[in-house]
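so ive been stuck on this for like two days lol. basically i have the seq below and the ligand is pyridoxal-5'-phosphate, smiles is in there too. i just want the complex predicted, nothing fancy, no docking runs or whatever. if the output looks off dont worry ill sanity check it later, just need somthing to start from for the group meeting slides
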Amino acid sequence: MLNETQLQELARRYVSFYLYDEKSILESTAQLIRDFEGIQFLYSIKSNHNPDVVQCILSNGFGVDAASLKEVEIGSENGLGQTNIFYSAPGKTERDIQNSIHRATLIADSLNEVERINQIAGELGLTVSIGVRINPNFTFDESHGVSSKFGIDEEQALAAIPLWQTYPNIKITGIHVHLRSQELNKETLLRYYRKMFLLAETFQTVLGCPLEFLNMGSGMGIEYSQQDTPLNTVWMGQQMQKMLQEFRLKFPQTRVLIEVGRYAVGKSGSYVTRVLDKKTSYGNTYVILANTLNGFLRPSIARLVNKYATGDFPVSSEPLFTALDAFAFLTIPSVSQKTETVTLVGNLCTATDVIAEGIILPALEPGDLIIITNAGSYGAVLSPMQFSSLDKPAELFLSQSGKIYENGHEICLCHNTK
Ligand SMILES: Cc1ncc(COP(=O)(O)O)c(C=O)c1O
């Protein structure tokens, strides 16, 4: 990580910025590959599409979970072929399908979409292997399914297979399920994976041919709040090995995929913003920061949800909101003679632009910095940066060798990073 002087130097150039740490990203992604032998990981680009971040994760052997044509293109530009880019999203347009059909494995999200892909493949003179996203007849916690805008209900999909098998331009070769993000209970995740292996068996039997891939989606959470316990991926990997051994008896060739966004990058990013002003009003001290709601939305959403929900523990709704204490607010200078109770607000013309209320921090003055943790995933990509036409935060990448990059270009600091 950078020291205070280096961060201050960056803050003089950029009024606010994200800083992604390569070393930390490489560690979290290598850990998954090491602990889950036999599983292939996909990076969910939607969580953070910064080019340096994407390149870093793919360099560790990840494939791509693409949620749009643009994300398919990012995968291709990084040298991945069709079998390592999985394009799964509801409501793909004809253009999306036409332009991704050569580059990605398409995952149909509805009965209509299976038909549409078959038609477009026919028009292009192709026969393509595709997957279908299934809304299974179970959830993480229950043994029955629930209604969803995503995927095709398990029963509908199984009933449609005879029809799909008459379509000349597609072949169903895989299934994809994604039910939940930010799960920190390792037993719950394992139980879900077990259900997924059984689902694969059902589909393979009805399809009457080997499944080429089983994409189990995401679910792995990270510790945001102080009450959160990190996932024990060593233990999970060992349990997964036992399940895989059994699975391999009936599925010797099937690729088993897990997607992650936040696990790869969530804890590897910080958001740095500058104190622009300070004032008191009827006994409250307000510290006014640059680009909060419009630069890193999630802490403001946490405040909003808390304000308008009933009860002390509003239900989390990822990726927008996890927990009230999901983000730590560190200060630079980090020490001060005195502390004070403040409300941290942003510089937008809306009273909803609040990221912390009544917190005790070292006394801050204009020009000082606030660093917000856990900003690596669903940070820049979720924030409404057009509001008030303010400058957007920069996105900086700190390489393992200590160099800093913005959009692939090195930034030189007067104070060396190594
Ligand atoms: C289909 C799908 N896969 C993977 C993810 C990534 O989830 P996470 O960042 O929690 O790993 C998401 C997130 O919304 C998703 O919708």
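The CA atoms of residues 172 and 249 lie 21 Å apart. The chain has a mean pLDDT of 95.
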